[in-house]
Amino acid sequence: MCRCNRQGAVSPIAILAAVVAGSWFSSAWAEAVQPVPFETGIVAYHSLADEGRFYGRVEAVHRSTISAQTSGEIVELPFDVNDYVPKGAVVLRVADTKQRAALERAKASELEASVRRAEAQSAHERNLRLIKQDAVSKLQLEKSEADLKAAQAKLKQASAARDEAREQLDYTVMKAPYAGVLVERFVEIGEQVQVGQRLGAGLSLEKLRVEVEVPARYVEMIRASANARIQLPGAEAGWLDAARLTVFPYADSRSHSFTVRLTLPEGQHGLYPGMLTRVAFALGEKQQLVVPSRAIVHRGEVTGVYVVDVAQQVQFRQIRAGRTVPGDLTIVMAGLEAGERVALDPVAAVIYLKQEPAVPDHE
Fold first, then answer.
1. pLDDT tens, 18-54?
2. What are the angstrom distances between the C-alpha of 145 and each of 121, 122, 155?
3. Higher confidence at residue 295 or residue 324?
4. If you average pLDDT over residues 86-90, what whole number do you get?
5. Count of CB atoms situated within 10 Å of the CB of 124
6. What angle do CA 325, 331, 333 make, to 5 degrees?
7. Residues in a beta bridge with 173
8. Which of 257, 282, 361, 316 lies closest to 47, judged by CA?
């Protein structure tokens, strides 16, 4: 009970007693509330990219069919279906007896034409000297000039025939235009092939892309941001930024959706043609509540964090976590509020929780 004067005012003695009591309570509370012995982080809102996620199909940029460019019998097939084929490796070889004989004939014809041209050149130069001495007629000079031009034309024709014969010989050996996988083979050793006949098909694993069907309402936002990322396979795998994004300029007449093509960076990223993967498109920015990813723990099927309150008390709280975002952060869909503190070392928080004393009662 406070001491009061006749007018109802509080006496100085009562005021001094209240101040002393308040100072003692604050000192006792400060001694009781000690900082936790582990690092903590603050739950806060961040401006993050608003994403739309869809499933897409991985396909090879380079997929080609090898066709015969010369005729003959197949004598070598070093690779079978699904074998990895290095760039420049021989995929198929055709018997080259006929083509090699044709090349030899072409070389002989070229040599003959070269000799004929040299002979015509010599005769024409001789007539040029003799015409100055009036030893030959003008008609003979013109004939030698015509013979020289004809010999030069024959030589060009023979050289072209030689190049064609050499090319036909080269066609007997089929080489891989790029490193990849042989996915189909249509012939076997001993078969006769003709020009234009399909021999096999292959694809490259070094250059891949993903095609995604997206609803029309997202197309303009995707075009404006031109930013997308692809989820890599595996439980611990992350996301890969697309090297290039192309939105098709027309919609499918049946589904009314647009096709978006994403080119992956060169190299092997664990993705293979035919796989389904998730693609995230940036659609703008949005304020999202995030928490450091290392603060999240999983207890069976329960996901949660260790929250540290103002009294430095630690408690486990279940949350609904969303996707991870750059900066080692995770979006929190429910369970936390902005400004709350969470333990960044869950193991240390568990140890502290087991050793934590009871909260002192100051009543």
1. 444 444 333 333 344 468 788 888 888 887 777 788 9
2. 8, 10, 15
3. 295
4. 90
5. 19
6. 155
7. 93
8. 282
| Higher per-residue confidence, 11 vs 138 | 138
How many CB atoms are closer than 10 A to CB 31?
A: 9
Boundaries of every domain in the chain: 40-48+288-355, 52-61+206-285, 62-95+182-205, 97-171
Structure tokens at 320: 């609904």
Q: Rounded to an integer, what is the distance from CA 317 to the centroid of its chain?
A: 38
Give the whole-angstrom CA distance, residue 181 versus residue 81: 8
**Close Cβ partners of 258 (under 8 Å, ≥ 6 residues apart):** 213, 214, 215, 216, 219, 247, 248, 250, 251, 252
Pick the CATH number of 97-171 from 3.30.1760, 1.10.287, 1.10.8, 3.40.50: 1.10.287
Task: Specify the CATH architecture of the domain 62-95+182-205.
Answer: Beta Barrel (2.40)
Least confident window among 144-153, 236-245, 333-342:
236-245
DSSP state for residue 79 in the 8-state scheme: -
Q: Do domains 40-48+288-355 and 97-171 have the same CATH topology?
A: no
Distance CA 151, CA 157 (A): 10
Amino acid of residue 37? P
Which residue carries 């909260």 as its tokens?
Answer: 359
Does domain 40-48+288-355 correspond to CATH entry 3.40.50.10380?
A: no
Nearest Cα neighbor of 282 from 327, 218, 242, 225 is 225
| pLDDT computed for residue 360 by the predictor | 52
In 3D, which of 47, 55, 46, 57 has the Cα closest to residue 281? 55
Q: With contact defined as beta carbons under 8 Å apart, do 320 and 333 qualify?
A: yes
| Residue 207 in tokens | 């250059």
Q: HSE of 223 in the Cβ direction (CA atoms, 13 Å)?
A: 11
Superfamily of domain covering 52-61+206-285? Efflux pump adaptor protein, beta barrel domain (2.40.30.170)
Q: Rounded to whole angstroms, how far apart are CA atoms 2 and 15?
A: 9
CB atoms within 10 A of CB 209: 21
Give the pTM: 0.55
The sign one gets for the Cα dihedral 74, 80, 82, 88 is negative
